[in-house]
Write a structure and sequence with these properties.
The structure is a single chain. With about 150 residues, the chain is mainly α. The protein contains six helices and no strands. The radius of gyration is 24 Å and the shape is flat. Helix 2 (about 25-40) crosses helix 3, helix 3 runs antiparallel to helix 4 and helix 3 (about 40-90) crosses helix 5 (about 125-140). The protein is about 80% helix and about 0% strand. The longest helix is centred in the middle third of the chain and has 48 residues, at about 40-90. The structure holds zinc ion.
């Protein structure tokens, strides 16, 4: 990636400031930038890198949401069993439980906010939607003709 250079510094700088996301601009303006992506290997690689990053962030934050949901479920489920252990170690069960629940909810709220921010601030949903649409098209092309004829056009 480092060995390549942008073929047009001005366009490259504009694209970099947008994190190589041109999905938000009007179609007639987009043409020039799409042309640049075709010509410029450097910007194409950077665009792929940034979209990969967006998808990784979305995956990470959604995993965090699931993790905290799971943690809350575990804390909730384990409460009666832990009663004995907490008594032996002399820990106050009520405080401990409240603390774990609060931590779980705080983590859940934080990860949900992070996930929403990733989805709204990055083109990850459009990007993933595009990939899904492409896959669907490929799948459809490989369907047997008997099934294809059943589908309305
Ligand atoms: Zn470029």
């Amino acid at each position: 990636m480092a060995s390549t250079r942008c073929t047009d510094r001005v366009v490259g700088a504009i694209l970099a400031s947008w994190r190589y996301d041109i999905s938000g601009i009007s179609p007639e303006m987009r043409k020039d930038y799409e042309q640049h992506f075709v010509e410029c290997q450097h910007c194409r690689a950077r665009q792929r890198f940034h979209r990969g990053l967006d998808v990784a962030l979305a995956a990470l934050t959604s995993t965090a949401v699931l993790f905290f949901l799971f943690a809350l479920a575990v804390v909730h489920h384990i409460k009666p069993l832990e009663h004995v252990a907490f008594n032996i170690f002399g820990l106050d069960l009520g405080d401990m439980y409240e603390m774990l629940i609060s931590a779980g909810f705080a983590g859940l709220c934080f990860s949900v906010i992070a996930f929403v921010l990733v989805l709204t601030a990055t083109p990850a949903p459009t990007y993933l939607g595009g990939i899904a649409a492409e896959r669907a098209k490929v799948l459809e092309e490989h369907l047997p003709d008997a099934i294809k004829s059943l589908r309305p056009r």
